[in-house]
Fold this sequence. Notes:
The chain has 493 residues and is mainly β. 2% of the residues lie in helices and 46% in strands. The protein has two helices and 35 strands. The strands form seven sheets. A six-stranded antiparallel sheet has the order 24-35-26-31-32-33, with no helix packed on it. A six-stranded antiparallel sheet has the order 25-34-27-28-29-30. A five-stranded mixed sheet has the order 4-3-2-1-20, with no helix packed on it.
Amino acid sequence: MPNSTWNLGFHLHSPRAWMNDPNGCCQFRGVYHFFYQYDHAWPEVDQKGWGAFSSTDLIHWRFDGVPLEPSIPEDRHGTFTGTTYVEKGTASDGGDRMRVFYTGNVVDPGPDHNEKDYDFVYAGRQANELTVESEDGVHFSNKRVVIPAADYPDICSMHVRDPKVWKEDGKLRMLLGARHVDTHGMALLYDSDDGYTWTFRQSINPKYFFGYVWECPNIVQTSGHDYLSINPQGLPSLYDKWQNMWQSGYIPLPGRILDTHEVDERSFVEWDHGHDFYAPQTFQDEQGRWILVGWLGTFDKHYTSTPDGLGWWHCLTVPRVVTRDEETGLLRQNPVQELRQLRGRQQVLRRNEPVRIEGRHADISLEHISSEVGTLTIDDSFQISYVQGRLAINYLDKESAAGRADRFIRLQRLTSLRVLVDGSVVEVYANGGADVFSSRWFPTEKPDLTVETTLEAERSFAYPMRDTMAEMYATAVAPDLTMPGWNEKPAEG
């Protein structure tokens, strides 16, 4: 039997099997839709579809099945990562229309049906960009190819994927992650008037080598400034940064992304310093907030595989509001305000006085920290420490780390901490969300959490958090893989 200590109460995970990249995250007709990469037959095969969740408040969720699976020649080996663009007032009822764009993956088995026939970088793979549409978020139109693999510019290798679509200056824009034929990562920018016919506009390259491919490009446009989010693969791990197998971060742009041909990779800022974070998606909700959702997982094989008995693997971060720090020009991330509605009775967290929190889900907050040295320890197993300008997460119990090692960043001063503990997930927000760690943690089974700190702070509180996921997962153990609305044949044209 799986350890119940690892169950999640306010983080989304697939009801069973494998989850990775969040896809098509949006708010559509008042409802938040979070899709994600899903492999229902994992670990036997690697055939990706899209799973789906929906919510009206970002804290109570419904599992909506698996609406998108490979079904036509242009996506026969996987419906890969994509985006949703909400088009205002164009549906038949005068309301909004959901337009989904994604990459259809095709792998050529080769003349001898031997993978060694191709290198899958310069030959043996296709990546087609496809679209489908919906007026209700449930039933979708025929699949339609909008950029076939043969139409990419000559500078591209076979690695092109992960469209991000938005509207700017009266036109639809599409970002794609790619690998240059000279083996460096880049992004492609396309324009369209209707979302069906796309024209290549420009490539966006680093000044110097910065990874061999860029995945899952996204954009944040806030306070009159543009930020390009990318996931570069192939960066060397350094002493205090780029510690994951693949990195995820953003680059502040000096001007508009539409005018950007080259970026200074030295200004790259990691979104998250934890072990388990990749492929974040950003979108604006109907309140105008920029929301970020990341994959709280990894492909890194240094970490232990699925713990015995756990029928699901990986999850998503809580939705985060992204804002601009006017002083530094950098971005901050903080859990959406709605999450506070799950808090239970407030408990004061005093220095050197352990507090027991009922259950395994907690929200811990320390504000106006004055200590220059100190720790916050959970279950005598997971610790956040600040000492000599280093903020670190430490696994005191190495078995609970499941292969993860301690992590740290340099930090001149620690002024605040917010820590979300949710079963086998810990998210750490330091200095008002200026720096974040997201990691998995597999502690010994215990009914409650214990929290203790040696940090002196003006306000220190701990809250138990309600579990809003249990009921949903109880009714979604075996998802229906044949949801209506996705047709077998592409549309004409």
